[in-house]
Amino acid sequence: MITRIAHRQQNMATFHQLRQAGIPAATISGRSRHGGPWQRLLPRVYLLQTGPPDIRQQALSAVLYAAHPGADPLAGTTAALTGGAALALLGIRDAPPEPLDILVRSPRSPAATGRVRPCPTSRWPATIHISGIPSARPVRAAADFAARTDQADLVRSVLANVVQGGWCHPHDLHAELRAGRVRNRPAVRAAAAELLAGVRSIAEGRARDTLAATDLPAPLWNTRLHGPDGTFLASPDAYWPDEGVALEIDSAEYHYTRDAWQATLLRRLRLESRGVLVASTTPGLLRDSPAEVIAALRALLALGAARPAPPGVTARGHAQLELPLPLRELPYAPKARDTV
Question: Is the pTM of this model over 0.90?
Answer without folding.
Answer: no
